[in-house]
């Protein structure tokens, strides 16, 4: 059964959630050149999911987002460890950043960075750990 708190809150969350997640992705991608990155982007995404938890109950949010946050944390750790330890395979110092330019047909010139993969790992870890903690505290069964 779906728990309804407030019609105004349910309507507002549909708009707010989109903008919060969109800004979270922007903060994540701008992290190379400006303040931001995986940590703050992950916190903003977790905050958006918490808004869903405030609006609806835990069961409804689990139906909307069927994500196992512990597995998400493990995937994030694999990304972070893989990209950081990958530098050791090429006999360069630990956490050395590599990048290159690629030309894609629809997107044009695109710069790829290993730091983006590391930040993606941090993003997944932050969302996974934060939501695991919040769900553990919020469960009443």
Gyration radius, rounded: 18 Å
Provide the spatial order of strands within the biggest beta sheet.
1-2
User: What fraction of the residues are assigned to beta strands by DSSP?
Assistant: 5-15%
Terminal Cα separation, in Å?
16 Å
Per DSSP, the total helix count is 5
Order of H and E elements: HHHHEEH
Category by helix and strand content: mainly alpha
**Average pLDDT score:** 86
User: What is the β-strand count?
Assistant: 2
Domain unit count: 1
Largest sheet: 2 strands, antiparallel
**What's the shape?**
globular
Helix content: 55-70%
Unreliable spans:
none
Describe, in plain words, how this protein is organized in 3D.
With 141 residues, the protein is mostly helical. The protein has one domain. The chain is built from 5 helices and 2 strands. It has a two-stranded antiparallel sheet with strand order 1-2. Helix 1 packs antiparallel against helix 2, helix 2 packs parallel to helix 5 and helix 4 runs antiparallel to helix 5. The two termini are 16 Å apart. The mean pLDDT is 86.
Name some characteristics of this structure.
141 residues, mainly alpha, two-stranded antiparallel ribbon, 5 helices, globular
């Amino acid at each position: 059964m779906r728990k309804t708190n407030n019609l105004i809150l349910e309507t507002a969350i549909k708009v707010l959630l989109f903008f919060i997640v969109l800004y979270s992705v922007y903060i994540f991608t701008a992290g190379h050149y400006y303040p931001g990155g995986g940590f703050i982007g992950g916190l903003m995404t977790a905050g958006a999911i918490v808004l869903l938890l405030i609006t609806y109950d835990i069961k409804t949010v689990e139906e909307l987002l069927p994500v196992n946050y512990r597995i998400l944390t493990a995937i994030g750790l694999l990304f972070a460890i893989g990209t950081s330890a990958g530098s050791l395979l090429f006999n360069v110092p630990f956490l050395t950043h590599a990048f290159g330019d690629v030309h894609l047909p629809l997107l044009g010139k695109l710069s790829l960075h290993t730091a983006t993969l590391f930040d993606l790992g941090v993003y997944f870890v932050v969302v996974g750990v934060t939501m695991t903690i919040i769900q553990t505290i919020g469960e009443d069964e």
